[in-house]
Amino acid sequence: MIIDSAHWLNLAVALGIGLLIGSERERRKAAAGERRKDGAGSSTVAGVRTFTIASLLGAVSTAIDPWLLMVAIICVTVFVTAATFVSNDDNPSLTTEVSLIFTVILGGLAMSEAGLAASLAVAVAILLAAKEPIHWFVRGAITKDEMNDFFILAAATLIVLPVVPNELVGPFDAINPRNLWLVVILVMFIGALSHLALRLFGSKTGLPVVGLVSGFISSIATVGAMGTRARKTPELMGAAVAGATLSCLSTILQLSLLLAAIHPPTLYALAVPLVFGGVTISIYGLVVTLSSFHQNGTEITNPGRSFSVKTAFMLAVVIALALLVSAALKTWFGQAGLILASGVAGLADAHAATISVASLALGGKIAIAEAVVPILVAFTVNAASKVVAAIITGGREFARQVSLGIIIQVTSIWIAWWLF
């Protein structure tokens, strides 16, 4: 490729890339020089001029011959290695050296993909400038368990998910392995978001926020935990009721997210009942939250793991069993069998029944309209389980207040279904 008038813009981008990354490194170089005066630290091997020339070197090399770019990269690597070797630094850092080599590559990339090269340069500059915040976050803000949980979630999403089969298998062709794995990922992801909210807010906003975010993991468990707290600490009754009530809102939100991921048409069919249920429980939750706003929850000193892998897999197993039972009952008894299976599954978890029914609709085994009632039945039975949990753990007054909100929510959902 020969440089002509059409490539001046590309050369300008390469020049900007070198100036951008080099300016950040020059500031870091100056800071290292100040520390060296105090007897610590060492100077870097390159500043703004070196980075700018390196970027232009990559651009011109690419314009003349792509193979010449490889020669330029090798030469810069050799020079950087030699400079690092003779610096006699007791605590060497390769950030600047690697950035210099990468700048040569970006300069070459700018001759063919100017937009991509510029975007990568901005990302590199941000990473270099954010050294202290990044180090603080990795070393001090997050725990070892949280980092391990992040790796697990990343592996489940980026490594396992692409190789999971995306087809119906098993008896009655009821199970889609990819959909089940998506459920595992969603449960872990929602748990991570809930954990992050707990880390950010702590107990400053009290039990209502804790109940809202914990409800994404298990609303029944949240109701039980809030009931136990209300029984042990009666002065936190109002805040505990607010937390338990808002966990029911989390159920609506999580059902919507799962349906959007598995089968959006089923979500559209349930949109009006879900909106009614979400709005009514939100209003009730807001009322009880405001009435107890002066109360704060206890300080959360150990938030624990971001999510439970065991819980995610257990939910996937429950969903798989619900899929098999629902498909079998649907085959043997028609729509009545599907409603019965959804109600049984809803005793423990409304999400398992919802996903199983939505998967049947996705596979064309039932019509979308036929999926609405089984999901609402599962939700209703699950709501009844929450009432039982409130009675057992929190006592009469706690159960009365929580049950009122749940009854309002379930009633509004069925009224919306009946009307629309």
What is the typical, i.e. mean, pLDDT? Answer: 77
SS field, number of helical segments: 17
**Integer-rounded radius of gyration:** 29 Å
- Could you say which structural class the secondary elements and strand pairing correspond to? mainly alpha
* Total DSSP E strands: 0
Anisotropy-based shape: elongated
Which regions have little confidence, pLDDT < 50, spanning 5+ residues? Answer: 38-43
Residue share in helices?
over 70%
The helix/strand series, from N terminus to C terminus, equals HHHHHHHHHHHHHHHHH
From the N-terminal CA to the C-terminal CA, the straight-line distance is 66 Å
Bin the strand percentage.
Answer: under 5%
Largest sheet, in brief, is: none
How many domains is the backbone divided into? 2
What are the salient characteristics of this protein?
2 domains; mainly alpha; 78% helix; 420 residues
Task: Characterize the structure shown.
It is a single chain. This protein is an all-alpha fold and 420 residues long. It folds into 2 domains: 5-138, no CATH class; 142-419, no CATH class. Helix content is 78%, strand content 0%. It has helices at residues 8-37, 48-64, 66-86, 95-109, 114-129, 131-141, 144-160, 177-201, 207-214, 219-232, 237-262, 264-269, 271-291, 309-333, 335-346, 350-362, 368-419.
